[in-house]
Amino acid sequence: MGIRTEYFAAPTDEVAATALHTPGGPSEPDLRTDQPRFDAVAVPSVDPFVMLGGLAGVLSGRPYAEVTAHPRHGALVGSGGEEGPWVVTVSQILVDDLASAGPMRLAAAAREWSGDATPAVAPQVLVSALLSLGALAARATDERKGVYCWTSLTD
Hints:
- The chain is α+β, with helices and mostly antiparallel strands and 155 residues long.
- It has one domain (2-154).
- Helix content is 41%, strand content 19%.
- The chain is built from 6 helices and 5 strands; from the N terminus they run E-H-E-H-H-E-E-H-H-H-E.
- The protein has a 5-stranded antiparallel sheet.
- The termini are close together.
């Protein structure tokens, strides 16, 4: 069993929690408009707790324990029960770091982060993930939205 993760932008915790009602996740198209319900990016196997904590440490230079102690690091805003899905917050500090880092900094962070990732993830996978997350963070910042993670168990 694995996890499926989609990171997405929403204006409030309450709006982000509505992603629980879309079985396919926040990028699932609205049946009325055929447009995604949220600005979202799939980032396979990058959990919002341990792996994102490691990324926050790499980007900020702060210790893992400090970044994961932030009250908005992985704070639950919605739960579909024991088997999910779940929606959690991404700290604004990490969102700001992602939004302000350019592609070169994100690529360097991905290489450093891949060495710390548990389980190990190939650097090229993380580079792609960070570029997508950085672009999402920049759009969210421009639109004054927060970034969230929708997580679901997979078979």
